[in-house]
């Protein structure tokens, strides 16, 4: 997969990984729809990128908003080749998470991906090509200490990406799933569990203790490299693969280790 000349939509592109992806794609001669709930942030990114980008605001968990993104891309640049389902939110803490927190996290972290694929895949099947990149998290392969909604929905995002690849991978549709650990974004600045500072601090400490905190630009470079090789699992932190292997090889031992890690963090 080469990105030059391709038309892309990147959600959550007003800042963080999404913005870095937009810059990296345009640097590679792609044209990008910069989508974000914060339309002012999206406009700033698009303005900086020039004629190869356009900004659209809206909640990408809303199917109509995604349909408008696709229509805008087609009108301004042509048929969509690449879709980066990157927008994501933290959520609540544990069993005391509210129904509203669960619902919003499921909508943004999972259903936004499902609805985008629902709209894009039929056209990609007709054309015989398309690339769907899901931003999940290492929490989707391992877990997230401190936040049940985040952990559960990121597992679901990985599961949906797997299903999408298995179902359509031999029909010209490529799928990749991005699963980083710590990245220097708003989530690590208090937005992981915004309504519970204590649980949020625990969750952020767990992420920062587990490995290096990468820049969004480093992650974006890794994504484009992995897409060129059409790898499904994108791991900016290579050590996540060994952690995942350890989990699969002895689940009980892994859970015991995570309990000990959590106890150390709390102490």
Number of domains: 1
Order of helices and strands: EHEHEHEHEHEHHEHH
State the distance separating the first and last CA atoms. Answer: 47 Å
Q: What structural class should be given to the helix and strand makeup?
A: alpha/beta
Query: Mind summarizing the main beta sheet?
Result: 7 strands, parallel
CATH architecture descriptor name: 3-Layer(aba) Sandwich
- How would you write the strand order of the largest sheet? 3-2-1-4-5-6-7
Question: How big a fraction of the residues is strand?
Answer: 5-15%
Give the class-level CATH name: Alpha Beta
CATH T-level topology: Rossmann fold
Number of strands: 7
Helix content: 40-55%
Relevant CATH superfamily: NAD(P)-binding Rossmann-like Domain
- Tell me the Rg in angstroms: 18 Å
Helical region count? 9
Low-confidence stretches: none
Give the overall shape: globular
Mean pLDDT: 95
InterPro entries: NAD(P)-bd_dom_sf, Sc_DH/Rdtase_CS, SDR_fam
Protein name: NADP-dependent 3-hydroxy acid dehydrogenase YdfG
Pfam families: adh_short
Organism: Nocardia fluminea
């Amino acid at each position: 997969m080469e990105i030059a000349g391709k038309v892309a939509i990147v959600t959550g592109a007003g800042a963080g990984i999404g913005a870095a992806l937009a810059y990296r794609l345009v640097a590679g001669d792609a044209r990008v729809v910069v989508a974000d709930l914060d339309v002012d942030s999206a406009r700033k990114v698009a303005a900086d990128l020039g004629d190869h980008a356009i900004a659209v605001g809206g909640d990408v968990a809303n199917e109509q908003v995604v349909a408008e993104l696709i229509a805008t891309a087609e009108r301004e640049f042509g048929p969509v080749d690449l879709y980066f389902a990157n927008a994501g939110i933290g959520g609540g803490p544990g069993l005391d998470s509210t129904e509203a927190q669960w619902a919003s996290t499921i909508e943004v972290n999972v259903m936004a991906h499902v609805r985008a694929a629902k709209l894009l895949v039929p056209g990609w099947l007709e054309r015989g090509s398309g690339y769907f990149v899901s931003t999940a998290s290492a929490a989707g392969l391992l877990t997230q200490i401190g936040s049940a909604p985040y952990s559960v929905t990121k597992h679901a995002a990985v599961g949906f990406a797997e299903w999408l690849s298995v179902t359509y991978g031999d029909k010209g549709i490529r799928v990749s799933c991005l699963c980083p650990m710590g990245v220097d974004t708003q989530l690590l600045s208090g937005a992981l569990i915004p309504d519970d500072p204590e649980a949020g601090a625990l969750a952020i400490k767990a992420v920062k203790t587990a490995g290096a905190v990468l820049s969004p630009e480093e992650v974006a470079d890794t994504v484009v490299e992995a897409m060129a090789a059409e790898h499904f699992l994108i791991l900016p932190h290579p050590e996540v693969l060994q952690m995942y292997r350890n989990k699969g090889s002895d689940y009980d031992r892994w859970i015991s280790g995570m309990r000990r890690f959590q106890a150390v963090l709390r102490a």
